[in-house]
Predict the 3D structure of the following.
Amino acid sequence: METTDSTMFLVVKSEHGQHVHGLLKNEGWLEAEVETRRSDDGTIGFPLASLCPVEGVVNWLNSTSSLEGVVEMHQGVRRPTVDPHRRLHKAIQTWLDENGLALEAITLAPAKWEKLGDLALLPRQVSTTEAWKKARSHEHAESLWGAMAAALNVSAIGVQAPIADDTFRSSQVEMLLGPSEVCFTDHGMTYTFDAAKVMFSSGNITERRRIGNLDMSGEVVVDAYAGVGYYTFPMLVHAGAAHVHACEINPASLAGLKAGAEANGIRHQMTVHEGDNTVSLASLQGIADRCHLGLLPSSEAVWEASLLALKPTGGILHIHMNVEEENIEDWVKDTVVRFEQMSQHHQRGFNAEVLHLERVKWFAPRVRHVVLDLRLRP
């Protein structure tokens, strides 16, 4: 919605508009949230930011480019900025000023966040500062969360926490405002789950898309760590897999996996195996064209079971792992040897061939999340 505010404008001849606009922008003196004024008398007015030295801007213009101008006050047409960081800073600063807190918005505003549908998850680090603790304990803190949510165009706000050290690797989100249940579309697929109980990494989107772009036409796939369908859905919706055996132990993830499968219309192409995947995989020997091993920091616990799940004609493994950057090449070589040794031990007669190594993202300093695509065949 458009609003109007009294704004100072630097008015120059229209023929000099492009040049003056560039000068003001370079100085950081252009108010980006107010529209430029164009007049019938052949002049153009540029809105000046609050930090611009209004009294000296005309002399600055003349000395910089020998151009003449005049500073005038007009009602400026203001629109919400498209930059969510600016909106967030402004919302926080307004709340601080209204509540008499002598803090700067930058001490409370995160540099990044994760959006899952109508929920924005703030990084854990933002909640560890003294400024955050002061705002958190304020009697009107809920209005701050509401202002932040509005700035980010969501209805719910939460703060991330370390993943629980349990069998399920449970999420431990602290909700500040609204419900934790989310439903959103990512790359043409619907995901629906409780973000306070289930971890979802938006940072893996490139890998989900890569998997979805592979040709799995007619294949039977085993997804050893299905979660809420991070990779199960792309394999069925985009890669053309005929059927996926989805193994998952976390009850909250299972609920999201089933709900998402129904929403995507692929439930009939899935067999969900609930519980310990070492038990599930033991019942899936010799059926798979492909196995996906998407657990971090290591999927090694099911390497042997995934080898045995492949058909006698062999198949492909997608092996996720966190590896120190300088050790990646050695890890690949060692992994090839490990699978060939396991194959020999189980008399499967497979040779291992590296098809691809994907460096997905940095997991920690010097540590990469990688995915090794390994083909095993007689």
Observations:
- DSSP finds eleven helices and 17 strands in the chain.
